[in-house]
Amino acid sequence: MPQFAANLSMLYPELAFLDRFDAAAKDGFKAVEYLFPYDFAKEEIVARLKHNGLQQVLFNGPPGDWNGGERGLACLPGREAEFREGIAKAIDYAVALDCPRIHVMAGLVPAGQQRDALQPVYVDNLRWAATEAAKAGRDVLIEPINTRDIPGFFINRQDHAHEIVETVGAPNLKVQMDLYHCQIVEGDVAMKIRKYLPTGRVGHIQIAGVPDRNEPDIGEQNYPYLFDVLDEVSAQCGWQGWVGCEYRPKRGTEPGGTSAGLGWLREWRQRHA
Asked: How confident is the model at residue 253 (pLDDT cuts 50, 70, 90)?
């Protein structure tokens, strides 16, 4: 049965960030993920995790100037020193929060440059990051992101991500497989689960409804079927990762809107009680 983690950057948007831990626990989540922890002291987050009996299963490394539009530094020539500083900070937080995974955002392809020319920098940065993370017992993840939500993002397809993981050759470098992004760019999601999960190179999965990134029971994807596929393939290959609920609640910032939209999860739990 999939293990679901609440994405606190998107869920419970009517609440202050630190209060979202309490809300997730009340809704029965056992784990959380989010974009970035760096605006908060490590001790504050640890206290919220412990108080609510939650596991921290994923967060992102520093992305550069997020408010200025940057979406990662890993593929950008000339930013290697800043990238390394960010990874060191992420590892420090990961150790304090007992978080096993750090998503390293690739970044945007600069205007006038080609992906092929940037890939050596990307590979070198990932190799360094994976080596440093391994010293602390952490995994590094890379995620293909669709070209509609983040135009120009360096990595968009599952096959490209797995090619890069193979090229780097670090056992703790894995792919963050977001089924929302995968559906938009490639489709054929069930077969990609069947293809890639048994490789051992998928470290985390995320979900959202397509096309509007709302609850997984809204839109064109049949998530009950995909969850059954995950169950089947996981049983065959021994995959034991988490499934992050990285979606925008349909009822937005309405008080209790996230909880009201969790009927899909309550139904799934009842089916597997």
From this structure: very high
The number of distinct structural domains making up the chain is 1
pLDDT in tens, 81-110: 999 999 999 999 999 999 999 999 999 999
Query: How many contiguous H segments (helices) and E segments (strands) does the chain have?
Result: 10, 8
Looking at residue 166, which CATH number applies to its domain? 3.20.20.150
The encoded tokens of residue 198 equal 């048994």
Helices marked H in 18-114: 20-26, 42-52, 80-97
> Which residues participate in catalysis according to the annotation?
143, 246
Q: Which residues on neighbouring strands pair with residue 142, listed in sequence order?
A: 175
How many other β-carbons are positioned within 10 Å of the β-carbon of residue 85? 12
Pairing of strands 55-60, 173-178: unpaired
In terms of residue numbers, what domain contains 180? 3-271
